[in-house]
Design a protein that fits this description.
There is one protein chain. By secondary structure, this protein is of the alpha+beta class. It folds into five domains: 148 residues, 3-Layer(aba) Sandwich (Rossmann fold), CATH 3.40.50.20; 70 residues, ATP-grasp fold, A domain (Dna Ligase, domain 1); 243 residues, D-amino Acid Aminotransferase, Chain A, domain 1 (2-Layer Sandwich), CATH 3.30.470; 132 residues, 2-Layer Sandwich (Glycoprotein, Type 4 Pilin), CATH 3.30.700; 68 residues, OB fold (Dihydrolipoamide Acetyltransferase, E2P) (Beta Barrel), CATH 2.40.50.100. Strand 1, helix 3 and strand 2 form a beta-alpha-beta unit. 42% of the residues are buried. The strands form twelve sheets. It has a six-stranded antiparallel sheet with strand order 26-27-28-29-30-31, with helices on one face. It has a five-stranded parallel sheet with strand order 3-2-1-4-5. A four-stranded antiparallel sheet has the order 6-9-7-8, covered by helices on one side. 29% of the residues lie in helices and 30% in strands. The protein starts with a helix and ends in a 5-residue tail after the last strand. Helix 9 crosses helix 10.
């Protein structure tokens, strides 16, 4: 204890001589806490954005720690900026010039006299150079030592360390010879299918599967490009691809005194594009004995690199519950809330306390779990278009009410925009139940209450996934989505006549509100345009409406009754309809009666589109736009390959004059942190390349113009 106090006193002297006032105060705090070796953090800079920045701030506020936000130009009005005690602009929208700008972030940390930097996940969270820089500047990096980040961040190195420590690993190649020929020879020896993985990073970036020898070089090149773009390192490793494995990971935590514990496992098997989409804890069907062995192997892995802070050891598990080390994520995981829900812990609080020098709050013997938890990641993406990520405004956003068993982890509000510059995740819906079935029922119920208008989301897909009988049975694996695609992507059913009646009623009632507003403002209350009774230009109490669902048009005949009800006829079937629009907070409901059946769907009307949300699902219908309001499509996209979304052209494979066939790769586009290959929509000759490498293309912009191949 005396030694700790003496060391702190020497720090005081050095910092006083350098004139660093805040660090002097912090050192005094260190002296006061010399008996525990801890140094209280009073201000933390969060070097991140979105939901994780908001998540860290909530715990910081709870602990009485002031939070400093940084933000890019695109995020100046974002939720994490408004939540912080202080916020500072760090650069343009591009993450390389803002959230990855180490110099600027360090400058602000010094300017604000922040004692610590929490990197969240992604961005700088696993950057060895940044962690070392923090140490050099006497700023606490809320994460593991840079040596652990380096050893675990390079997958080939981590596997060698794990093998030496006795942790089981998957057969593969982790060598230095990175020539195409050597890698192909190793892949042939391992046997197909082969997993090609970037040695750095995570999140599915730089990862491809070569099912056959013929695919290998194409998949290798694609993985290298993405790895170079994401991690500035295109070195690859190869692994034997385990067919239909489970992805099981263990939450570990270490402190500066050599203590390490595991907080049980999470199952993250259900994925698309090698990225997790739904996680749960504990893993379904895992016995206490396997759970213990998993946890002990994870702690063994953490101790092998003297790990400090929150980390996740990821394993793949076969059908016999044999497990093999895959990688270690040296940061807080996106899915950490499910662990918190079953253990009753706050892992961000643990991070801040351990980073300040405190011992782990609990021993392994004191840790236990209760119940079951799920996390569903809600993304701006189109599951029906290969989960193509999107961007756009959140015109309407309503969620289930959070409580002790329901958490909404998000960084956006209604009216915000999901930016094309960053990850398309909107939120994480986290639920807890007494057992797996109770938690699953709650997840389904809450997904029906999570309603978004303005862009495509995966919410309906998540519901289909949570309702699938094989998922309910816990029979999960990484190939779950393609294996059960028929059930997860059912043919879209036409809107019921009940929904058509409700949509018609909502339009009429909305029209009445607008008419009454016009009437109140009008100087001519007798104008026919100030009458919502259905009387229009000698048409007495009857009207015809058309509603559109996809490519289908439905003609609807409406008769206005004297008692304020309506007689609606659809395809010869008559419905007696009545109701009213009510508002609860920011949400509008339609209290309706259709042939005596009462219901109360949520209703959102934007421009000419009606959205109905209920526990039975969602319905989207529109009314036709008059022809004189329809803009002429001047994109000139006929006979062209177009950009699926706004992004940057990374690579161009063709030249003008080339002959191509439908499906041939033309370009690679980077958008929403993903690589997209643009393929030829038809056979033809490349007439003109409209975008060069490095240029940005807007959504639906023509990229390549074709002419018919007359030589055929």
């Amino acid at each position: 204890m005396a030694t700790a106090a003496m060391a702190a006193a020497r720090l005081v002297q050095r910092w006083v001589r350098s004139g660093l006032k805040l660090k002097w105060l912090c050192a005094l705090t260190c002296i006061r806490n010399a008996t525990t070796g801890s140094c209280r953090i009073e201000k933390v800079l969060i070097a991140n954005r979105g939901e994780i920045a908001c998540r860290v701030m909530r715990t910081a506020k709870k602990m009485g720690v002031r939070s400093v936000a940084v933000y890019s130009e695109a995020d100046k009005h974002s939720m994490h900026v408004s939540m912080a005690d202080e916020a500072y602009h760090i650069g343009p929208a591009a993450s390389q010039q803002s959230y990855l700008n180490m110099e600027k972030i360090m400058q602000i940390a010094k300017q604000t006299e922040s004692q610590a930097i929490h990197p969240g996940y992604g961005f700088l969270s696993e950057n060895t150079e940044f962690a070392e820089w923090c140490k050099k500047e006497d700023i606490i990096f809320v994460g593991p030592p840079s040596t652990a980040i380096r050893d675990m961040g390079i997958k080939s190195t981590s596997k060698a360390i794990m093998s030496a420590a006795g942790v089981p690993i998957v057969e593969g190649y982790h060598g230095d010879n990175q020539t195409d020929q050597q890698l192909m020879e190793e892949a042939n020896q391992i046997g197909y299918p082969v997993m090609i993985k970037a040695v750095r990073g995570g999140g599915g970036k730089g990862m491809r599967i070569a099912q056959t020898k013929a695919q290998f070089l194409e998949q290798l090149e694609s993985a290298r490009r993405e790895a170079k773009k994401s991690f500035n390192d295109d070195i690859m490793l190869l692994e034997k691809f385990v067919d239909n494995p489970r992805h099981v990971e263990v939450q570990v935590f270490g402190d500066q005194y050599g203590n390490a514990v595991y907080l049980f496992e999470r199952d993250c098997s259900v994925q698309r594009r090698h990225q997790k989409i739904i996680e749960e804890a504990p893993g379904p069907g895992i016995s206490p004995e396997v759970r213990r062995r998993l946890g002990e192997a994870a702690v063994q892995a953490a101790k092998a690199v003297n790990y400090v802070g929150a980390g996740t050891v990821e394993f793949i598990m076969d059908s016999q519950h044999n497990f093999y080390f895959m990688e270690m994520n040296t940061r807080l995981q996106v899915e950490h809330p499910v662990t918190e829900m079953i253990t009753g812990t706050d892992l961000v609080e643990w991070q801040l306390r351990v980073a300040a020098g405190e011992k782990l709050p609990m021993t392994q013997e004191e840790l236990s779990f209760k119940g079951h938890a799920f996390e569903a990641r809600i993304y701006a993406e189109d599951p029906d278009n290969n989960f193509m990520p999107g961007a756009g405004p959140l015109l309407h956003l309503s969620t289930p009410a959070p409580d002790t068993s329901i958490r909404i982890e998000t960084g956006v509000r209604q009216g915000d925009e999901v930016s094309v510059h960053y990850d398309p995740m909107i939120a994480k819906l986290v639920v807890w139940g007494d057992d797996r079935m109770a938690a699953l029922n709650k997840l389904r119920y809450c997904l029906r209450q999570y309603n978004i208008v303005g862009l495509s989301t995966n919410i309906n897909f998540l519901f289909n996934l949570a309702a699938h009988p094989e998922f309910e049975a816990g029979n999960v694996h990484t190939n779950f989505i393609p294996q059960h695609s028929d059930g997860l992507f059912p043919a879209k059913e036409a809107a019921s006549k009940m929904s058509l009646c409700q949509a018609t009623l909502a339009l009429i009632l909305q029209e009445r509100i607008q008419t009454n507003t016009f009437k109140a403002l009008s100087h001519d209350p007798f104008s026919p345009f100030a009458d919502s009774s259905g009387r229009r230009l000698n048409i007495l109490y009857r009207r015809n409406l058309t509603l559109i669902e996809g490519q289908n048009k439905v003609n609807i005949d409406v008769a206005y009754n004297n008692d304020g009800t309506y007689r609606i006829q659809i395809d010869g079937q008559v419905f007696h309809v009545s109701g009213k629009l009510t508002t609860e907070g920011d949400i509008t409901y339609l209290e309706s009666s259709v042939n005596g059946i009462l219901s109360k769907p949520k209703v959102v009307i934007t421009d000419n589109t009606i959205h109905l949300f209920s526990m039975d699902g969602s319905v989207q219908l529109s009314s036709p736009v008059p022809k004189y309001l329809v803009a002429v499509d001047a994109s000139g996209s006929e006979g062209a390959a177009v950009a699926p979304m706004t992004g940057t052209i990374e690579k161009v494979f063709i030249n003008e004059g080339d002959h191509v066939r439908a499906g041939d790769p033309l370009m690679v586009m980077i958008a929403m942190k993903m690589e997209h290959t643009i393929k030829a929509p038809k056979d033809g000759v490349i007439e003109k390349i409209l975008h060069k490498e490095g240029s940005q293309a807007n959504r639906h912009a023509p990229l390549v113009k074709f002419v018919d191949d007359v030589s055929q």
